[in-house]
Amino acid sequence: MSAAKRTPPETIEATLEMLADHDYVAGRALATVLFLSLRMGRPLFLEGEAGVGKTEIAKVLAKALDRPLIRLQCYEGLDVSSAVYEWNYPAQMLEIRLAEATGEADRDRIETNIFDERHLIRRPVLQALQGEPGRAPVFLIDELDRTDEAFEAFLLEILSDFQVTIPELGTIKANEPPIVIITTNRTREIHDALKRRCLYHWVDYPEAEAELEIIRRKVPGAAQALTAEIVAYVQKLRKMELFKNPGVAETIDWATALTELDRLALDPQTVSDTLGTLLKYQDDIARIEGSAGRQILDEVKAELARTG
């Protein structure tokens, strides 16, 4: 790939085009904040419900700019050894045994050999800081709200200076800061100190027209009438008081499943049989399997018939 193709977009319009070229349907507001994040070298903080396409932005960006994608999947209990680095203890013990076997008595030399970089296991944070010059990675910090506040504070230090200190080796600083994308599903609030270092965007569920375009791009084999019914059905579901509304990812899964079943349109039995690809909680499925689901389908077909 040529260097020109790896260059970040120069305008908001070019950012929209870059996303569209990789089948990501975005509004101008998202394209604007992404463009500014790239131009200003600031992390991009994306918040929204699960399944609305936050993680996909980082994947598309890495592919469009021909950069490595390094993903730190956050979870409760995530610590420095899992996120930044740890030492290869078996290899270090072997080094000690070899020193003993050869009669090596120089303690400083033994310690230097033990804490050599060849025994260092680089986790996502360190990998992101040690990116290839001129090709800094896209660093995805996914679902930050799953971690605790202590790790959030540690991450704040990393994002401030793009460096980390390893006591045995010293400070490692990024020659070129990575492109940082942070996502959260808002299961808890993230501290303002971290948000202030980022540009922010709320990624919402798409409007019907945008979701139609997404399905056309992601499931090109789906019948046109089926796609319209799927999107209209999902849009109505999101207006109900469900435990978990279906995201765009679930809409794509449902369209894919129905295409695999060679369906050309929705019917009550097909909806009932395939709800597990769209809804992930039994209470939600039970609510839609009955008369409520049939009523939604009747409304969808009536509305589509009126609009042609």
Question: Secondary-structure blueprint of this entry?
Answer:
Layout: H1 3-6, H2 12-21, H3 28-40, E1 44-47, H4 54-64, E2 69-73, H5 80-83, E3 85-87, H6 89-101, H7 107-114, E4 120-122, H8 124-129, E5 138-142, H9 149-161, E6 163-166, E7 170-173, E8 179-184, H10 192-195, E9 199-202, H11 208-218, H12 224-237, H13 248-260, H14 268-274, H15 282-289, H16 291-307
Parallel strand pairs: 1-8, 1-9, 2-5, 5-8
Antiparallel strand pairs: 3-4, 6-7
Descriptive report:
By secondary structure, this protein is α/β, with parallel strands linked by helices. The chain has three domains: 3-84 and 123-202, 3-Layer(aba) Sandwich (Rossmann fold), CATH 3.40.50; 85-117, no CATH class; 208-300. It is built from 16 helices and nine strands. It has helices at residues 3-6, 12-21, 28-40, 54-64, 80-83, 89-101, 107-114, 124-129, 149-161, 192-195, 208-218, 224-237, 248-260, 268-274, 282-289, 291-307; strands spanning 44-47, 69-73, 85-87, 120-122, 138-142, 163-166, 170-173, 179-184, 199-202. Strands 2-5-8-1-9 form a five-stranded parallel β-sheet. It has a two-stranded antiparallel sheet with strand order 3-4. Strand 6 (163-166) and strand 7 (170-173) form a beta hairpin. Helix 2 crosses helix 3 (28-40), helix 11 crosses helix 12 and helix 11 packs across helix 13. The protein starts with a helix and ends with a helix.
